[in-house]
Structures are given as structure tokens and as C-alpha cells.
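R.M. (postdoc): so does anyone remember the format we settled on? I'll just put the C-alpha cells first.
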């Protein structure tokens, strides 16, 4: 087997997919050191936060968005003597003599079409039809994604292998000195609730801001779903805890930041933008709570990363998140602002509950590892090549 892994998505434009393919390539090299692996790399683009493993490179300076890849990539594969090609993205060569494995992460434009133009949805659908037809085997990162592939494209379930992602081994509880250094670096308070991710519409940040307004200005009632905003909200100076929103910020979606300012939360919500990978474990570890109210996730890697760092997790009860979080997180309806607000307050005010959630989270995250992901992926490769003979 001469495996060629397409790492052209290991750029800042693809933070999730890039992390996936880099972690997988590194783990494959470790679990199968005798395996011949080459990386198809766009040498014209580099990442500020991802480092490719030390493996042979095939220079391919053509973007996945370029139609030229339909001719250039197959030529590169043939010249390299590839016997198997793995693409982590649906924009790939659709007509190639090399057996192909495709990883599918999510189908957001089809599940939430209101966030995309008709043209974007059409291209997404057509590209997936071609990619799914070209692939000998499809890897879905969750059972939820597998179900979506069957629902929207009628993919034969036997062609889909569910292989989850995992947190990198660097994600583990950090020492107080390391946490303090990162808090100083990003000018963060000692106590904070954390969100890590993009600000795309399906991430549901506007509802998170609305819920944080309830938490910040006082909660009346008890139990999930009974909280209210007072008629004349007055910030509580005795409650210094803040909401920290970290991750790539897309200027096309300013709604969450605008809502924060209009709601009088400018000093209670901190938008810190992208965080260096080296700092993420400490940022997670220092949080009182990690909250992830996304409407849809193919996997939900930040949930596992936070759990691995010993942080209580509150996340949505939809798409892949229940299977990823198990019973270790507090699951809520992401469209119910009152429920989200009360759940946040419940965790913040109950030390015993936070302790239980930390322990459960550490156990849950330990069930996922890149070594296991690599081993399962290697079985897919072997199965594809065996069927080719």
C-alpha cells in the first residue's frame, strides 16, 4: 500500500478538517510505521496553527476550490505510484484511477438550508453526489453524520464506516501556573465560562448571548426552563464571572458581537478571537464551565477537548453531541434560551455537580483516541484494497 493523504485542508480556512487530517496522518505513522504514506500538500498555502508530520510530501499547489485539481491531482497520484487516496473533504478529484476513501464531517447546508444561498446548496449537493460516487468507502465521524448521509444521499449503509475523532494528547488538566500565564496573555479574568469555535450561524452564539444576559442580570425561579429576565436588569457587581468566546471570527456574521453590545454586556462577554493551539489546553482548564450550544455538529471536537482538560461541559442535545458527550455533559435544547440560561447557572452555583461532571468528562474523553481512530481507519484502507483485487 502506498497511501496518499490529501492535507491541502490543513490551513487556517479549515480549522476542524485540518486538525482532523493532521492528527490522523500523525497517528497512522505511529500505529503503522512500515506503512508507506505521502502527504499531498498545497505548498502555496501554510497554516499558522497546524504542523504536518514528518512524512514525504507531494507538492500540489492547487486549491481544493479550483477546478484544475480534477486534472492535476490524478496526475500527481499516478506519478507518485499511489495505490490509495484519502480525501478529508468533498471537493476532491472525482475521476481518478486511484481507489479513494472520503471522510464526511457534516451536511450543514442541507440540514440548515436557511443559512446558505440556493447556489451554495446546489454546489454542495452536486459536489457530494460526485464525491460519494467516486469514493469506494466513506468514513463518517459520527453516527449522526452517517444517518444524514443515508437520509440526504441514500448512501448504502454498508459503504459507511463510523470512526470518531479524538482530542490530542496535549489536552489534559493543566497546572495552575500554566493557566495563570495564559489568562495573563489573553487578559482574562480568574473566573469565566468558555465557548470555543467559530461564529457561523449554526453555532448558535446569539442564543448563548441571550442566555448569558439572563445569567448576568439575575435569575428568578429554579429548575430548568423557569428563569426570567427582570424588568429592569441591573448588572451584579458581585458576580465577576465573564463569558469568553474564543475561535476564528468570520466578519460575515457580526450578529453575536452586535447583540452583546446592545444588551449591555460589553464588559461581561469577551471576544478574544483565535487562540494558539499551545494555549488551548490551559484556556479550557481554567474555565468554570465549557458551553457549546451548537445547533448541529458532525462530531463536536471542542466537547471532547474540554472534557479531557477536566472542565464541566454543557452542550446541545442534538445531532452528534449526545453520542460524543454521553452522560458526562449536561444536555439542553439549544433553541430554548431560558433552559440554557438556567442550566449554566445551575452548574456555576453547584460545586458538587461541577465535580461530578469533571470526573465523568475525564472518563468519557478517555474513550476516544487518535490511535484507535487510526487503527479503525487502517482497517478501512485494507478493506478497500482487498476488494480491488
Amino acid at each position: 500500500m502506498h497511501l496518499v493523504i490529501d492535507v491541502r485542508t490543513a490551513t487556517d480556512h479549515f480549522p476542524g478538517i485540518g486538525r482532523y487530517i493532521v492528527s490522523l496522518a500523525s497517528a497512522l505513522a505511529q500505529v503503522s510505521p512500515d506503512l508507506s504514506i505521502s502527504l499531498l500538500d498545497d505548498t502555496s498555502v501554510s497554516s499558522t496553527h497546524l504542523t504536518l508530520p514528518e512524512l514525504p510530501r507531494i507538492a500540489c499547489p492547487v486549491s481544493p476550490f479550483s477546478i484544475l485539481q480534477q486534472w492535476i491531482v490524478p496526475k500527481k497520484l499516478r506519478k507518485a505510484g499511489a495505490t490509495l487516496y484519502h480525501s478529508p473533504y468533498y471537493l476532491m478529484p472525482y475521476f481518478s484511477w486511484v481507489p479513494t476513501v472520503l471522510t464526511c464531517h457534516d451536511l450543514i447546508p442541507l440540514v440548515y438550508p436557511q443559512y446558505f444561498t440556493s447556489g451554495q446548496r446546489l454546489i454542495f449537493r452536486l459536489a457530494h453526489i460526485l464525491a460519494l460516487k467516486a469514493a469506494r468507502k466513506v468514513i463518517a465521524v459520527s453516527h449522526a453524520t452517517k444517518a444524514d448521509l443515508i437520509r440526504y444521499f441514500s448512501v448504502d449503509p454498508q459503504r459507511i464506516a463510523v470512526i470518531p475523532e479524538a482530542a490530542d494528547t496535549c489536552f489534559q488538566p493543566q497546572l495552575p501556573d500554566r493557566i495563570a500565564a495564559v489568562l495573563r496573555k489573553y487578559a482574562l479574568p480568574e473566573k469565566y465560562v468558555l465557548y470555543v469555535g467559530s461564529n457561523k450561524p449554526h453555532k448558535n452564539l446569539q442564543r448563548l448571548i441571550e442566555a448569558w444576559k439572563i445569567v448576568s442580570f439575575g435569575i428568578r425561579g429554579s429548575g430548568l426552563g423557569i428563569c426570567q429576565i427582570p424588568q429592569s436588569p441591573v448588572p451584579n457587581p458581585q458576580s465577576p464571572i465573564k463569558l469568553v468566546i474564543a475561535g476564528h471570527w468570520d466578519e460575515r456574521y457580526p450578529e453575536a458581537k452586535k447583540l452583546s453590545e446592545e444588551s449591555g454586556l460589553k464588559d461581561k462577554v469577551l471576544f478574544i478571537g483565535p487562540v494558539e493551539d499551545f494555549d488551548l489546553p490551559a484556556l479550557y482548564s481554567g474555565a468554570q464551565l465549557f458551553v457549546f450550544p451548537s445547533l448541529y455538529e458532525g462530531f463536536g471536537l471542542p466537547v471532547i477537548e474540554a472534557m479531557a482538560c477536566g472542565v464541566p461541559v454543557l452542550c446541545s442535545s442534538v445531532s452528534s453531541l449526545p453520542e460524543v458527550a454521553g452522560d458526562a455533559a449536561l444536555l439542553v435544547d439549544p433553541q430554548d434560551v431560558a433552559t440554557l440560561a438556567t442550566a449554566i447557572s445551575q452548574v456555576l452555583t453547584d460545586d458538587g455537580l461541577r465535580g461530578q461532571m469533571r470526573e465523568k468528562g475525564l472518563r468519557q474523553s478517555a474513550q476516544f483516541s487518535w490511535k484507535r481512530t487510526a487503527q479503525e481507519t487502517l482497517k478501512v484502507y485494507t478493506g478497500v484494497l482487498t476488494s480491488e483485487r
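R.M.: ...and that's the designed sequence above, right after the C-alpha cells. Also worth knowing: The chain has two domains: 2-166+369-388, 176-365. Residues 128 and 327 are 33 Å apart (CA to CA).
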